[in-house]
Amino acid sequence: MVLENEVVALSDPKEEPEAEEEEEVDLVDPVDEVRAKCEMDSKAQQLNLILQACNDRVSKRSNTEESCHEELIDYVQHVDHCVGKKIFSKLK
């Protein structure tokens, strides 16, 4: 194959008539809605208060080995467990 004499001409593509703009539908993640509800239940609120108290206590000290890891894990596990029980009813 010899391509020496072949000339490629670049041109603007033919303009196509613009189609009507489709409205973009904002997708909402059902997990966010379920998580927000789970964060508002009484047990989650109680665990959140414990976590906040721990954070306040740790932040007031300049030299401490205490962390709020356990409190954070308890809170996150509770919320995730609640979400896990409810999320499949929201999925299609």
From TrEMBL:
Residues 15-26 have a biased composition (Acidic residues). The keyword Transcription regulation does not apply. Disulfide bonds join 38-82, 54-68. It holds the Pfam family UCR_hinge. Residues 1-26 are annotated as: Disordered. It comes from the Eukaryota. Residues 29-92 form the Ubiquinol-cytochrome C reductase hinge domain. It is a peripheral membrane protein. It is found in: Mitochondrion inner membrane. GO terms for biological process: mitochondrial electron transport, ubiquinol to cytochrome c. GO terms for cellular component: mitochondrial inner membrane. Keywords: Disulfide bond, Electron transport, Membrane, Mitochondrion, Mitochondrion inner membrane, Respiratory chain, Transport. SUPFAM superfamilies: Non-heme 11 kDa protein of cytochrome bc1 complex (Ubiquinol-cytochrome c reductase) (SSF81531). Component of the ubiquinol-cytochrome c oxidoreductase, a multisubunit transmembrane complex that is part of the mitochondrial electron transport chain which drives oxidative phosphorylation. Belongs to the UQCRH/QCR6 family. This is Cytochrome b-c1 complex subunit 6. It comes from Dreissena polymorpha (Zebra mussel).
